[in-house]
Amino acid sequence: MIKRIIPITVLAFSCIIASCEKKPLLSDYVDPGIGTAHSRWFFYTPAAVPFGMAKLAPSTDGHLGNTGGWQAVGYDARHTSIEGFANFHEFQIGGVVIAPTVGKLQTVPGALDSVESGYRSSFDKKDESASPGYYSVLLKDYNVKAELTATKRVGFHRYTFPASEDANLIFDIGNRQGESGYVKEASVTYTDDGRIEGWVTTTPVYVNIYQKGATVSMYFSAELDKKPTAFGSFVKDTVYPDSKTQTGVGAGLYFKFKTKEQEAVNVKIGLSYTSVENARLNMENEAKNMSFDKAHKNATDTWEEYLGRIEVEGGEYNDRVKFYTGLYHALLGRGLASDVNGAYPKNDGGVGQIPLNEKGKPVHNHYNTDAIWGAFWNLTQLWAVAYPEYYSDWIQSQLLVYKDAGWLGDGIACSKYVSGVGTNFTSLAIAAAYNCGIRDFDVNTAYEAALKNEVDGKDRLAGAGKLDVEQFVNRGYSPYTTGLSMRTTPEGSGFGASHTMEYSFSSFAVAQMAKHLNKEDDYKLLSKLSEGWKTLFDPETKLIRPRDDKGEFIKDFDPFAPWIGFQEGNAIQYTYYVPHQIDELIKLIGADDFNVRLDSTFQISQKNIFGGGETIDAFAGLHTYYNHGNQPNLHISWLFNFSGKPYLSQKWVRAICNEFYGVEGIHGYGYGQDEDQGQLGAWYVMAAIGLFDVKGLTEINPAFQIGSPLFDKITIRLNKDYYPGKEFVIETLNNTKDNIYIRSIDVNGKPHNTVQLPFSDVVKGGRMSIRLSDTPNTELNK
């Protein structure tokens, strides 16, 4: 045998090379394209930072708008052409489009099936790249490379043109985009100092439903780094050469350039919801002298920090892709609505001012937000454990609206009420945050607002939702009234049964806050209301069944029928909507029957991919036993933790993670399901790390239920401003595809014989070890 001698210098060099190998970026696991077939307007906005205002993205059909305000529109993975790049993407908010073209000037967007009919270009997927904070694509018909990135309130566009005498940039301001609704008014000006500035005011569908007459306005101030050879304004397809300003529906500006081969034209655009001046200030503060590449790097670094709050290691590669894409969507939605100086849009259309600290900075931010319906089974749990500072800001945003308008809003668009589902869970989310120790907000006002939300129906605004809450308080249930169809009034609701379940749960949550604050009378009242669900429990069918205004169970009861007493669900699904008193529901049904029924639900539902099957429709699963594509069912796979068979929760949660969630454009969050600004993504995150609370952290001393983690090691980095611990580590032993059951649990080196883990133990920091097996441990306590 001949021994090979390797020189020491070579060994040293090899060690240097090995040590310099870069650890993969967490953002590399994120695929923004997952689930983009049939997705909402705000879903695909890769050029953004976490919770940002500037959310830049390509639009394949955004100019079409949508009739109901919620349908899929904007970017669709199945489309092959792009019309332009919008800067605002939020729930009920969208607009300010920039589009590069070459050749003939066109000022209206082309149709999907007719690229040449307006400004629009075909593209190939191979020429498209998207990652957190960045997007690029080659527009084939113009041979223009488009690139996008952003800071919190500033968008960056870089368009690299071919050699041309006819390179164009279109600023389309006065036309409908996405969920924004019709344009009421618009204005755009090319200023003497070379800025493009203006605003657009829209009338979103949901704003019109919940706050009639209110509008949403978007403001901008943009800079070009190249002087145009010509410019003009337009109103739809009517062009006004040399015109520097235009107003009205359809208003916009165009700019023409002479470009060399591979010459880039950069656009920097400050955004605001309060004024052009503040849009300019936001750009000055966040992006003065900042290049596109620097903004891109900063965005990537920001995403790494936010994604790194929960670091997972090991497990299947596709599970890491699902995990970080889900976390990305949870951090992408519900973005900034206030400016760097603390100005924010008020509910009445005016401009409010957030207080400033001793350094002249706002003491908190204000955010737009989709409704919080169902978010206690995903987003608020994630916020509480890893992003408490955002949770606090979210609450303070809601309190601004309460102080301005007198009622909490469930969803808000520039502080305008957009309840979405006609109910209101903001009070529950406030109470849960308080229970978790997040209390750096005006607690007295928060409690006042939360209590009012639960018990007060007098002169209640439509935007506050729960118009039938007085019926619930007086009767113990909200009556189902057939003539109301999908409407809710002070006399009752077409969704009376689901409202009863929801109001019972939120009453329980606020009761716990009342107990914390020694509000004994309120605690007793709210605790009594929390049992309202029992008035609808039908002992014959052992299901929740709507009652009419005479107190009678409805006739011809079909447990699978959605919309008849139940919003976006049916009696089979909503019967489990008793998370706060699940032990009592189990007793009423009987533990054995409960387990058989629930287990059968998942056995049957697995054949339909736990929801709507492969039907590309947001409501495809409403007639089924279980519908993971919508909110009312998102807790029930975890209910076995309360019925004596936690191993069945471990089994079915894993199955949902593996089968409902995918890594494709069409099969992402189910097939074309409604992800609602991060809710389904956040559910996957919590399920994948094995921590979830059926009660949404609403108990006075909240606890997670422990599930079967998908990864070998999970490190949750805790916010030291809120929690005593530095990090909480979860490690799994024997973690394989087949080992889905928990064999044993150790917490900080000590045996832990229950699947309940106090929230306080997590945020103290420490280590939990979970040994997995391919056989259930039937001795593990609930």
Query: Helical element count?
Result: 18
**What kind of sheet is the major sheet?**
9 strands, antiparallel
Beta-strand segment tally: 37
Neighbour order of strands in the largest sheet: 6-7-8-9-18-13-12-11-16
Mean pLDDT: 95
The multimeric state of the shown protein is single chain
Q: How far apart, in Å, are the first and last alpha carbons?
A: 62 Å
The Rg value, from CA coordinates, equals 27 Å
Which descriptor suits the 3D outline?
globular
Class computed from helices, strands and strand pairing: alpha+beta
Q: Which range best describes the helical content: under 10%, 10-25%, 25-40%, 40-55%, 55-70% or over 70%? A: 25-40%
